[in-house]
Amino acid sequence: MAPETTPDPTGTKRRTAYRTCPLCEATCGVAIEVEGDRVVRVRGDKQDPFSRGFICPKGSTLGELHHDPDRLRTPLVRRDGRLEEATWEEAFEEIERRLGGFFEEHSRQSLALLLGNPIVHHLSTSLYVRPFVLAAGSFNLYSASTLDQMPQHLVSGLLWGDPSVFPLPDIDRTDHLLMLGANPMASNGSLVTAPDFPGRLKAMPARGARLVVVDPRRTETAARADEHLFIRPGTDVFWLAALVHTLFEEDRVSIGRLEPWVEGVDEIRDLVADFTPERVAPICGIDAETTRRQARQLVNAAAGAVYGRMGAHTVEFGAATAWMTAILNILTGNFDRPGGVMTASPVASRIDDREPGGRGFQTGRWKSRVKGHPEVNGEFPAAGLADEMETPGEGQVRAVITVASNPVRSYPNSERLDRAFAALDFHLALDIYVNETTRHADVILPPPSGLEEEQYELTFMANAVRSFAKFSPPVFERQGPSEEDIFARLILILRGQGAAADVDAVHEEVVAEAVDRLLKDANSPIAGRGRDDILAELEGLSPVARQLDLRLRTGWQGDLFGANPGGVSLAKLAKHPHGVDLGPMVERFPARLKTKSGRFELAPKQLVEDWARVRARLEDPVVPGRLLLIGRRHVRSNNSWMHNIGTLVKGRSRCTLMMNPEDAGRLGLSTGGMAEVTSRVGKLRVEVETTEAMMPGVVSLPHGWGHDVEGVRLSVASAHPGVPSNALIDDEVIDTASGNAVLNAIPVEVTPATA
Ligand SMILES: Nc1nc2c(c(=O)[nH]1)N[C@H]1C(S)=C(S)[C@@H](COP(=O)(O)OP(=O)(O)OC[C@H]3O[C@@H](n4cnc5c(=O)[nH]c(N)nc54)[C@H](O)[C@@H]3O)O[C@H]1N2
Ligand SMILES: Nc1nc2c(c(=O)[nH]1)N[C@H]1C(S)=C(S)[C@@H](COP(=O)(O)OP(=O)(O)OC[C@H]3O[C@@H](n4cnc5c(=O)[nH]c(N)nc54)[C@H](O)[C@@H]3O)O[C@H]1N2
Ligand code: SF4
Ligand SMILES: [Mo]
After folding, report:
1. Which residues surround ligand 4, an ion (CB under 5 A)?
2. By the number of CB atoms within 10 A of the CB, which of 49, 254, 335, 563 ranks highest?
């Protein structure tokens, strides 16, 4: 599909390419105006039916990102202690030599793989990560999931049997949205893809829908809510348990349509019996009357949704909080109901609409070496990585491959991790920058610019509030190898076949495996069809496009390779550069239940056992003496990167310690002054910003900053460095149920900084 050409007054040939912004979960459509090999402008694509022209300030800088002179275009290899430019051949030879030597002395477990946030935004990484992890043969797998959302995976897995089916607030149809620990006005939404979240929130009052935000900071989102409640950080679980308690107390449990498929209601009633609104009030800082009123508002709404995110999940009781959130949605009859929370129907997926029931979900199939953490969803806790790197013994992590990850800024106790990375035997990074982490690497391989890749937001379409599909061809010709070729080479090296072996054989194998899986599955729509015929249909496409086409065509809207002639295929999508909208979320339960019992298991053993920690805290609450540190996001920032884009970082520093004026006054601090913040693991000097938006007793600092360290090659970011909040985040405390890091509610000491 050729990009459209728009009239151009300057006489030079301009074209507009339509794509999706790959920077966050919102998947906004963008119109990229190009002249020759330059991006001249990026606008929101008004014809994208899902995002309808919305973009945030980050999206309009995709051109700056593509042209950023600091973005790596060639591999770097460490020679005499310095990272120097090398050819691709030299880089792969070096990797083969180093890894070959490494595995002569160490077991596979001594290699750790770290998968970072951006991998879910690329087809290549989404599709090749599985064979890559298998080729590495190590259980030491870490990703941003245990810094972010593992509580939700666990709860989804245990309650309805599928860890990757998320309950999405039906934002466009809800009458009442109770939101905890999320700030979509800045983040644009998380674990729910709804482009133009701000617009969707703004549309709520017009149809009489109410928004209640529970957050220790009066955020940009709280400012537009009908009600905002301050809550003491880390205590959402107590408050949600009190809401559940109130439903039972006032006899308002009403599950509705799904009632025959729900078990464990009595256990839940017993678990929350002591969690009265009065008892949790001093813990949470929310009075009992307000709590009861909130419970009534939720049950009285025609359709209501409870949605908890980062601030609710990345705390000590993250899994328990996600659990109580799900319980509330189920007990109020709002689960899988339009306007409540529903699940996505991604176009590139099959929909299993047979009988409820499946294999269920298991954790702890293997355990981490040092602390014995159970794997959850195949991963170990990111917060345990430094232990694995520093503790001697068989299986000590001595080599790391980071893929689009900046652990030295995004993992807890980052300064400890910084030292551990500096001491590794071998570090390979797939990254586009020399940053705080990759400056330690022995080899850096830069994947192509996002604008040089085929695009389909596979991961986020699986969390989207509408069934939407959009495929975009590359905007520019690729300068180096494709990311799937990079992965294929690494797979060959890791398997011991050598960097010079045939990459196409890996691609063939990956697609053939996917086809075989479908042909063998009696329930697949192409079961029993001819293997060669299917493979022939996919010929002529790139390796990633073949896999995508296979998924689309065998998906629930697919053309089934001819059996459903009106259905979706990649070729058809290519004719719709703005994307295709196939409607809102629809009811999918009980068929989607994949627990062994074929029911919603409201009180799974693992979570009931974990509840003992919550109960212990109810009985022996922490007396809030010290200040509690929480995080925050800003619409012009993106985790630990995008700080090298001048347009986004200009103006005054946003990396400030926000605190309530009352706390500041007591400590002798004021806006613009410098504070010293100390936690169990670290200390930082940071500028203070006082604001009534902070709950007294709580301070807030954004993460991902701290770019003024030696060896980074970020000319803009290092001039706007900020400080690394993860230097303060304790890696000893985790949500033991899910393995998730605790990034919020960190006890800190704040004092005026001495000069
Ligand atoms: N204290 C605190 N810590 C947090 C959080 C918090 O709220 N508070 N949030 C956590 C969350 S939710 C997340 S998801 C993690 C994110 O943490 P990470 O998973 O480490 O991801 P990012 O910080 O986004 O860093 C992305 C890295 O990928 C590189 N990169 C960018 N684009 C590409 C690309 O196209 N290809 C490749 N190969 N590399 C690319 C960037 O240069 C950078 O090194 O941080 C977590 N850390
Ligand atoms: N602009 C921008 N957008 C982003 C990102 C980014 O870095 N910048 N990162 C992306 C990523 S990887 C993710 S995961 C999403 C995250 O998106 P969100 O889940 O919306 O996360 P945050 O914006 O960090 O909002 C978390 C909120 O939780 C509050 N909070 C902290 N502790 C608690 C607590 O104990 N209880 C309650 N109730 N609230 C608490 C904080 O004050 C904050 O307002 O954003 C994505 N979008
Ligand atoms: S909200 Fe901003 S960063 Fe996120 S997809 Fe849209 S334009 Fe990109
Ligand atoms: Mo995240």
Report:
1. 148
2. 335
Nearest CA to ligand 2 atom 6: 638
CATH number of the domain residue 224 falls in: 3.40.228.10
Over 60: is that where the pLDDT of 217 sits?
Answer: yes
| 293 domain residue, yes or no | yes
Q: How many domains does the chain have?
A: 2
Same domain, yes or no: 308 and 236:
yes
Burial of 78 (0-12, 13-18, 19+ CB in 10 A): middle
Alpha carbon nearest to ligand 3 atom 6, residue: 28
Alpha-carbon distance of 745 to 283, in angstroms, equals: 13
CATH number of the domain encompassing residue 704: 2.40.40.20
How far, in Å, CA of 561 to CA of 584, rounded? Answer: 25
In angstroms, the CA 331 to CA 360 distance is 21
In a shared domain, residues 608 and 688: no
The answer to whether residues 183 and 311 belong to one domain is yes
Q: What range does the domain containing 723 cover?
A: 624-752
- Is 407 within the bounds of a domain? no
Residue 2: which pLDDT band, with cuts at 50, 70 and 90? very low
Tell me the CA–centroid distance for residue 666 and ligand 3, in Å: 40
The answer to whether residue 335 sits within a structural domain is yes
Does ligand 1 have an atom closer than 6 angstroms to the CB of 431? yes
Closest ligand 3 atom to residue 44 Cα is 7
Q: Is 147 in the pocket of ligand 1 (CB under 6 A)?
A: yes
Provide residues with CB under 6 Å of ligand 3: 21, 23-24, 26-28, 55-56, 58-59, 188
Cα dihedral 722→723→724→730 (10° resolution): -150
Q: What is the pLDDT of residue 1?
A: 38
Contacts of 435 (CB under 8 A, 6+ apart): 406, 408, 409, 640, 641, 707, 712, 714, 717
The predicted-structure confidence for 294-316, as pLDDT tens digits, reads as follows: 999 999 999 999 999 999 999 99
Does the beta carbon of 725 sit less than 6 angstroms from any atom of ligand 1? yes
Residues 378-392: tens digit of each pLDDT: 999 999 999 999 999
Spell out which residues line ligand 2, taking CB within 6 angstroms.
24-25, 117, 148, 180-184, 186-188, 190, 214-217, 219, 231, 233-234, 236, 309-312, 315, 630-635, 637-639, 744-745
Tokens of 720: 């706007």
Atom of ligand 3 minimally distant from the CA of 20: 5
Q: Which of 582, 613, 644 is the last residue of a domain?
A: 613
Over 60: is that where the pLDDT of 6 sits?
no
The percentage of the chain sitting over the pLDDT mark of 70, rounded to a whole number, equals 98
Q: Can you give the pLDDT at residue 12?
A: 66
Cα 389 to Cα 370: distance, rounded to the nearest angstrom: 10
Query: In this structure, are 647 and 679 located in the same domain?
Result: yes
Q: What is the mean pLDDT of the chain?
A: 96
Give domain status of residue 558, yes or no.
Answer: no
Whether residues 603 and 670 share a domain: the answer is: no
Asked whether the beta carbons of 97 and 504 are under 8 A apart, the reply is no
CA 200 to centroid of ligand 3, rounded, Å: 15
CA distances from 454 to 13, 229, 463, 538, 544 (A): 23, 44, 20, 16, 8
| CB of 87 closer than 8 Å to CB of 75 | yes
**Mean pLDDT calculated for residue range 419-444:** 98
Write the CA distances from 99 to 84, 173, 555, 663, integer angstroms: 19, 53, 39, 53
- Contact yes or no for 310/117 (Cβ under 8 A): no
- Nearest Cα residue to atom 31 of ligand 2: 311
Q: Please indicate whether residue 358, judged by its CB atom, sits closer than 6 Å to ligand 1.
A: no
Q: Vertex 156, ends 702 and 159: CA angle to 5°?
A: 140
Cα(234)–Cα(315) distance, integer angstroms = 6
Residue 94 beta carbon below 6 angstroms from any ligand 1 atom: no
* 591 and 355 Cβ atoms separated by less than 8 Å: yes
Q: What angle do CA 112, 113, 115 make, to 5 degrees?
A: 150
